[in-house]
Design brief:
297 residues; 7-stranded mixed beta sheet; Purple Acid Phosphatase, chain A, domain 2; globular; 6 helices; alpha/beta; binds fe (ii) ion; 13 strands
Length: 297
């Protein structure tokens, strides 16, 4: 992808540096999780629509866990014969998952910056000693020009627009903390996690998670104080990422209905970053990275 360098700053911190950060700089990032790509319930058309939009707009893409459903292997008691797509009816089931994912993602692989583990991937590793994501990342790097960073269940992503010119200097950093997710949130739809996570990750500008197949954006406004005693406010943005899997539709049978689960929103979230100028005194303006959040649906 043009004008972006993705690198690992520390074991659990990935940084995306954007070039050409002039006064009109803007950049979009797609945060998507819980695709459950190999499930019969995955809305692949919607997924493809968002990936095409990312490619057309030079946007970065991060997958935050549960790309795979991967429940139809011999080791998984949750599998059922009607839930398996015909292309996976092979004795080398895990190979089939990897091949089909790479065929689907190959046209968009240059835009994918990071790929994090979800509980469906860690479950496969636990029972089969195979890491599906590292197999896919390696295969995609053989097929094309990619810089996909493998990421853990939790971690950090830094977004850094660099000033134009030879001296590489950022004019700001947006810090995003993520976890694939925990808990059920059946009644609260995950909103109780907002305060837990804002305490755990006070340095984050954005906190994103998936896993429970719900969707919301919540703002936490904070009073901050500088070393010079200057008071100011900022916002910590909380994003709950929905899923691409709709297990509710259909004939009303199955585990989803037997356990009383509701319909769930589909899609993902866009993070739109742009350079703005805020008035600090009557004559001075300071550069600032504005964060706008937009549903991908
Ligand atoms: Fe999950």
């Amino acid at each position: 992808m043009q004008n972006v360098e993705v690198r690992r700053m520390a074991e659990k911190v990935v940084c995306a540096e954007f070039g050409g950060g002039g006064d009109n700089w803007n950049q979009s990032i797609l945060l998507a999780s819980d695709q459950h790509f190999d499930s019969t319930h995955c809305d692949r058309d919607l997924l493809e629509k968002h990936l095409k939009q990312a490619r057309a707009t030079n946007s970065l893409v991060f997958f935050l866990g549960d790309w795979f459903d991967a429940m139809q292997g011999r080791s998984d008691k949750r599998g059922n014969k009607s839930g398996i797509r015909p292309e996976y009816k092979r004795s080398d089931y895990l190979n089939a998952l990897i091949e089909e994912t790479c065929d689907f993602l190959e046209p968009y692989a240059e835009n994918i910056a990071g790929w994090a583990e979800g509980n469906h991937e860690t479950s496969i590793e636990k029972y089969t000693e195979l890491n599906l994501l590292s197999c896919c990342i390696r295969e995609l790097s053989v097929r094309g020009n990619t810089t996909i960073q493998p990421m853990g269940y939790t971690g950090w992503i830094y977004f850094r627009p660099m000033r134009p010119g030879k001296k590489k200097k950022a004019f700001g950093t947006v810090r995003l903390a993520y976890t694939h997710g925990t808990g059920g949130g059946v009644v609260t739809r995950g909103s109780l996690n907002v305060n837990r996570r804002s305490i755990m990750w006070p340095d984050a500008d954005i906190i994103a998670s998936g896993h429970i197949h719900e969707s919301f954006m919540m703002e936490v406004q904070r009073e901050r104080v500088s070393d010079q005693g200057r008071l100011y406010q900022d916002t910590q943005w909380h994003l709950q990422l929905p899923s691409y899997k709709d297990e509710f539709s259909g004939d009303g049978n199955g585990w989803w209905h037997e356990t009383g689960k509701s319909p769930r929103p589909k899609g993902a979230w866009w993070v739109d970053l742009s350079k703005q100028f805020v008035k600090t005194t009557t004559q001075n303006y300071a550069e600032h990275i504005q964060i706008d959040l937009r549903r991908a649906q």
